[in-house]
Specification:
The complex is a heterodimer of chains A (about 700) and B (about 450).
Chain A lengths: L5 H13 L1 H5 L1 H16 L8 H7 L5 H14 L4 H14 L5 H13 L6 H12 L4 H17 L7 H10 L5 H14 L10 H10 L5 H11 L7 H15 L4 H14 L4 H19 L4 H17 L19 H14 L5 H11 L5 H14 L4 H12 L4 H17 L4 H7 L10 H13 L7 H10 L7 H17 L1 H17 L4 H15 L2 H8 L20 H4 L6 H4 L2 H9 L3 H6 L4 H6 L5 E6 L2 H10 L11 E2 L8 H18 L8 E6 L5 H22 L1
Parallel strand pairs in A: 2-3
Antiparallel strand pairs in A: 1-3
Helix pairs in contact in A: 1-3, 3-5, 4-5, 4-6, 5-7, 6-7, 7-8, 7-9, 8-9, 9-11, 10-11, 11-13, 13-15, 14-15, 15-16, 16-17, 17-18, 18-20, 19-20, 20-21, 20-22, 21-22, 22-24, 24-26, 25-26, 25-27, 26-27, 26-28, 26-29, 27-28, 28-36, 35-37, 36-37
Chain B lengths: L1 E8 L4 E6 L8 H10 L9 E4 L2 E8 L2 E7 L5 H19 L4 H6 L1 H11 E2 L2 E2 L4 H4 L15 H5 L25 H4 L4 E15 L5 E14 L6 E6 L3 E3 L11 E3 L1 E4 L8 H4 L1 E4 L4 E11 L8 E9 L4 E10 L6 E10 L6 E6 L4 E6 L4 E10 L3 E9 L14 E8 L8 E7 L6 E16 L2
Parallel strand pairs in B: 8-25, 11-12
Antiparallel strand pairs in B: 1-2, 1-5, 3-4, 4-5, 6-7, 8-9, 9-15, 10-14, 10-24, 13-15, 16-17, 17-22, 18-21, 18-23, 19-22, 20-21, 23-25
Helix pairs in contact in B: 2-4
């Protein structure tokens, strides 16, 4: 944030700095410098004072020196010539009898980040490696890494590398760890420091001397080591056992990572390590620091993938505190869902029920969808709670409940009776698009069992002119069509009106095309229409919550103790773990970034093995336009969100279906142009694409 | 590896910015602040990324403490580091606030310089750091009449001076050296309770997380021995007959603690370093030795005029001589509640309706053990239906119980050896906080 009157301040500071009276008074001099640094950290550009500050560097006052160095290191890259003046003072300081001054000078010399100064720095650095004081050696070792990164292309002297290797035996543990770090950077090209048996054993033996930061660093580097024999492996593991239950989360996590990587061929050992680590991880979940709690809960989610029942008895530890932030609550609820079993289901549902009325709407909705997921195994209890929540008549709760019910009937068709009864009257409370879409879907699919369905749709059709959302209009079209198939007498008139409006007056192409499609479909006869529209109503194969097979540890071991588990979205975890109903994946979380990143260049070819989709078009209509027999290229305009894309696709496919054609090709070839390359977005996109294709195939089966 | 560290005020002012690796754009701080303020709420804000720069941040003292790093870094390490940094800044500056950080920026730059080099954490031990840190802390102590009250009449020793003022432990650790300040040591037993009480009054969950924290202002550290209750036991199996056994489920100690006398006499031996450190952490689940501190007896009904009547009876089950302070009950109320009228049983309580958090907040400054308070809240809710009653509750209670530990852990003695030359003072304090104390209705 630039300060107002920054220039004025700089001018004043320059005047003060060059004032001989100030310079002769150490205290005033120091205070003026203090002011400079303060202005600097407020974001004002004070680089103009560089030459004055260089003069201030030559002083015996260590505090003043430190302050000046803070300044010089920030602006040196802007003034390479003037920085040459500093180097003399710095080199002189490197000879100082006081080790603190020596280390200070050496550190700042390397922090100036000026390639032109390298030649002056090398000699003091070499001397620094052999200094008596450990604090100077620490700085010197890292100094070489800094130097190397200034000139990544130039080779660092082999003698220096050797010296660094020998400093691994330095009595000071920090010097040892710094050597590891420096060698890792210098030898990056060769894959980092060579981790052989003697080095490994040396590091392991000295692990106890290091502080927690050093320990985690050493453990991280050791992940590359592969023990030569089973005996050695077990020796290492037993040596590390005490670190596995360390009360310090960084050490515990680093040790577990190491355990998982060196015993990757021995699943029994990995599982035993997971058991052992659950205590300290639980303790971290109760840590005073929220951020630490969050990190621990996210990592517990990883563990649960492989050992689903691991923390079952401790489920109460994941009850949310009322003052916890929403992001922790959400993760804790996800864990609670995983831990449900016959004994604790009543307690967990009772707890989750309490969160449904939370003042934070995100928390409330997360709680409702958690109940829905438990409902896959314990549908009666959960539906009772969900139905009760509809009585609150609050828009965000009703919306979440309806969406949850839609997802639930997709997995458990036996719930549909209860759901149909509960839906009555909730259209009045629903406000948001996603909730209304879910309701429309339910009305369309289960229209014959909901007595009021035609009236609800009629109200919406009468208001379609003022409807802003594209998604609602399209969902409305589909729902009305479906309802027409099972209750033609009540629906015929309104369907006519809706189609008329959409074809004649609607300006949006997607809606218009879809309406046209349905119109022509009706011309093909009621049987054809039924074939296309009344597809699968549920997907029982998605299965229940309990008794899910455990995934191998290796699947997530790579991202344990990295930032990945903390930043990945909840959606991914869900679809990953059990495959939610198709529509959820793209309806509830339309990813806006996705279409941005999928624009041009960087060609990625994907052959999606969607022979199922092909089979269906084969069996039902035996058609696929010759135009798409050639590779189909999809270009997404940035405005297209995934759900729109689905409709585009539907429409395209269906149009071809109608037109009729001859040829069929094995599989669909999709070419995506992506810039910049983003594997995550690509993967997400493909999931959506495959889901769409599967839905299509199921609708026609 | 840490690329940059910066500290921002809650309004986004740059307080401290330190670039360890170089090569980052100048706008990185504003990018972070934009991201953190633009959060929609369901994103986890601890880790955010911008291209391949990852921001990890914590919030302490109302400030954002941010580190930028790469995707492969350990979240535990970075979070722990930021927590430790905040603790060190608190130790050195005396307290943690925007003002203290602003006044001591030179000191903090100096600290950062010593703690991290080229993005690698070097040391965070205050024993090591004290040799390097030269800048003195600047403190501002607002003038307060309370300070005067501690000065006895004509310099006489008053009763009050035997109790450390609550601000005694919020001073920079280094002032003891230069100003010849008192050499003091504080041993705090701090426990946090997490309790859920069901609507039927049954205890559903009770957890206690405790720690013994030592805050040392001794210029030269000597060995310290902390004696815990002799009947202190760890784990479920070790039940020792009757009596006031103090039990915890799990227990862990600081690296520097020597436990050779722990098994026989429950004595912790350590050489405290300057500043604050957690010596021992322990936890206890479900099986509390003493009664729960608070019970709530609510009655909720609708009256004929469409108002919601909430009659709350809150009982404090602490021993009669002790008291809870800063008790605050948050009672969620139906959406659309317009106004509140209240009848409270004593004048030192207050209650108000917070429409944005949809709750009635009932505050009690001091609540003596063995007593009972009651309150009648009448809420005007225009769209009151029978379903709205579901929206009332669960009640969250926050409080502080001074001089009480929920587990019963006590410190028998605190000895320093060799005996300190000159006057030294040892303080032992106990406090139990509510982490989350929820009572369902």
């Amino acid at each position: 944030m630039p300060y107002l009157g920054g220039e004025e301040t700089v001018r004043e500071l320059r005047r003060a700095l060059s004032n001989p009276n100030v310079q002769s008074d150490p205290l005033r001099y120091r205070n003026t410098i203090l002011k400079v640094i303060r202005t600097m950290s407020q974001g004002v550009d004070v680089s103009g004072l560089f030459s004055e500050m260089v003069k201030a560097c030559a002083t015996v006052d260590v505090v003043q020196k430190k302050l000046v160095y803070v300044f010089l290191c920030s602006y040196a890259t802007l003034n390479p010539e003037l920085s040459l003046l500093v180097i003399n003072t710095l080199r002189k300081d490197c000879q100082d009898p006081n080790p603190m001054v020596r280390s200070l000078a050496l550190r700042n010399m390397t922090n100036l980040r000026l390639p032109s100064l390298v030649e002056y720095v090398e000699q003091p650095l070499t001397a620094g490696l052999r200094d008596r004081a450990a604090c100077v050696r620490r700085v010197a070792v890292l100094g070489w890494a800094k130097l190397h990164n200034l000139h990544p292309s130039s080779e660092i002297d082999a003698a220096v590398v050797n010296e660094l290797y020998s400093l691994l035996r330095d009595p000071d543990p920090v010097v040892m760890v710094n050597c590891l770090r420096a060698l890792e950077e210098i030898l990056k090209e060769e894959g980092g420091i060579a981790i052989n048996k003697p080095i490994t054993h040396h590091l392991l033996n000295r692990l106890k001397e290091c502080d927690i930061w050093g320990q985690s660093e050493v453990l991280r580097v050791l992940q590359r080591y592969r023990p030569q024999s089973e005996d050695e492996l077990f020796d290492i593991l037993s040596l590390l056992d005490s670190f596995l239950v360390s009360p310090h989360p960084p050490v515990m996590a680093a040790t577990l990572s190491l355990f998982l990587s060196i015993s990757s061929n021995l699943p029994v050992i990995s599982l035993a390590a997971l058991e052992r680590v659950s205590g300290p991880l639980l303790a971290a979940c109760g840590s005073g620091s929220r951020e630490m709690r969050f990190a621990a809960v996210c990592h517990i989610q990883l563990l649960l993938r492989s050992v689903p029942g691991l923390l079952g008895p401790h489920y109460k530890r994941f009850f949310c505190g009322y003052a916890e932030p929403a992001y922790i609550k959400e993760r804790k609820m996800q864990v609670l869902v995983e831990l449900v079993n016959d004994e604790n289901v009543a307690m967990i549902l009772d707890e989750l029920k309490g969160y449904c009325t939370d003042v934070n709407t995100d928390t409330a909705q997360a709680a409702i969808s958690a109940i829905g997921r438990i409902g896959r195994s314990y549908s009666d209890r959960c539906l009772q709670i969900l139905t009760g929540l509809l009585g609150l008549k609050q828009d965000h709760i009703t919306s979440a409940v309806v969406q949850t019910m839609r997802d639930l009937v997709w997995v458990c068709p036996q719930c549909s009776d209860t759901v149909c009864l509960a839906l009555d009257g909730c259209e009045e409370t629903l406000q948001d698009i996603q909730g209304r879409q879910a309701l429309l879907w339910l009305l369309g699919v289960y229209g014959e069992r909901i007595s009021t369905a035609p009236y609800t749709l009629e109200v919406l059709i009468d208001r379609v002119r003022s409807e802003a959302s594209l998604g609602i209009k399209m969902e409305l079209l589909t729902a009305t069509m479906r309802l027409f198939l099972c209750r033609p007498a009540e629906t015929q008139d309104m369907l006519g009106r809706l189609l008329h409006y959409c074809i004649e007056e609607e300006t949006d192409m997607c809606v218009r095309d879809q309406a046209l499609l349905y119109y022509r479909l009706l011309h093909c006869g009621i049987e054809k229409t039924r074939e296309v529209l009344q597809g699968r109503r549920s997907d029982p194969s998605l299965g229940v919550l309990i008794g899910r097979p455990a995934k191998p540890v290796s699947q997530w071991a790579r991202c344990f103790n990295t930032l990945e588990p903390l930043s990945q979205g909840a959606v991914e975890a869900e679809s990953d773990s059990r495959g939610s109903p198709e529509h959820v994946t793209y309806n509830s979380k339309p990813n806006a970034d996705l279409s941005d990143t999928l624009s041009c260049s960087h060609i990625e070819e994907v052959h999606s093995g969607s022979d199922s989709a092909m089979r269906c078009s084969d069996s039902s209509t035996n058609v696929l336009a010759s135009s798409i027999a050639a590779p189909l290229s999809l270009s997404l305009s940035p405005a297209v969100s995934p759900e729109d894309f689905e409709h585009l696709w539907l429409q395209r496919q269906a149009l071809h279906t109608e037109r009729g054609a001859e040829k069929i090709e094995e599989g669909i070839k999709v070419i995506l142009n992506q810039q910049p390359k983003d594997d995550d977005a690509l993967r997400q996109f493909l999931t959506i694409l495959i889901t769409v294709l599967n839905t299509l195939s199921s609708e026609k089966d | 590896m840490i690329s940059q560290v910066f500290i921002l005020s809650s309004k986004g002012d740059h307080l401290i910015y330190k670039d360890f690796r170089g090569g980052a754009g100048n706008d990185i701080v504003s990018i972070f602040y934009e991201k953190v303020t633009a959060l929609t709420g369901d994103q986890p804000p601890v880790v955010m990324n911008h291209k391949d720069i990852y921001f990890v941040h914590i919030r302490q003292g109302g400030l954002y403490w941010v580190a930028t790093t790469t995707a492969g870094s350990s979240p535990f390490t970075i979070t722990e580091f930021l927590n430790r940094l905040a603790a060190l800044v608190k130790d050195y500056c005396g307290s943690l606030s925007e003002k203290s950080v602003q006044m001591n920026f030179a000191l903090i730059y100096e600290l950062l310089d010593e703690i991290v080099d080229y993005g690698y954490i070097q040391t965070t031990s205050s024993d090591v750091l004290k040799n390097f840190i030269q800048t003195e802390a600047v403190t501002s102590r607002p003038f307060s009449l309370f300070d005067l009250s501690n000065v006895g009449l004509f310099g006489a020793e008053t009763q009050q001076s035997k109790v450390a003022p609550s601000s005694a432990a919020t001073r920079p650790i280094q002032s003891s050296r230069e100003q010849g300040g008192k050499s003091e040591i504080f041993v705090d037993v701090i426990e946090r309770m997490t309790v859920v009480i069901g609507s039927n009054g049954l205890l559903m969950k009770a957890d206690v997380e405790g720690e013994i924290r030592v805050k040392c202002y001794m210029p030269s550290c000597s060995e310290m021995r902390i004696g815990l209750n002799e009947e202190f036991s760890i784990g479920k199996s070790q039940l020792r007959g009757y009596g006031a056994a103090v039990r915890v489920d799990e227990c862990s100690f600081h690296q520097a603690v020597r436990l050779d006398e722990f098994d026989s006499h429950r004595i912790l031996r350590l050489c405290p370093s300057q500043g604050e450190q957690t010596v021992m952490q322990y936890q206890l689940s479900d099986d509390l030795p003493s009664a729960l501190p608070f019970r709530l007896f609510p009655t909720i009904e609708r009256d004929n005029g469409g108002r919601l009547l909430m009659y709350m009876k809150l009982r404090c089950d602490l021993p009669p001589k002790s008291a809870a302070i800063n008790v605050c009950a948050t009672i969620p109320v139906p959406k659309g509640s317009v106004s509140l009228s209240q009848e409270l049983s004593s004048p030192d309580q207050s209650a108000e309706l917070k429409p944005q958090s949809r709750a009635v907040v009932w505050k009690i400054a001091r609540f003596a053990g063995g007593t009972q308070l009651s309150a009648l809240f009448k809420l005007e809710v225009p769209s009151l239906s029978s379903a709205s009653m579901l929206e009332v509750g669960p009640v969250g209670l926050s409080f502080e119980l001074p001089k009480i530990t929920a587990t019963g852990l006590q410190i028998r003695f605190l000895r320093l050896s060799p005996i300190q030359p000159g006057p030294s003072q040892r303080w032992v304090r106990y406090v139990t906080h509510s982490d989350s104390y929820t009572i369902r209705i």
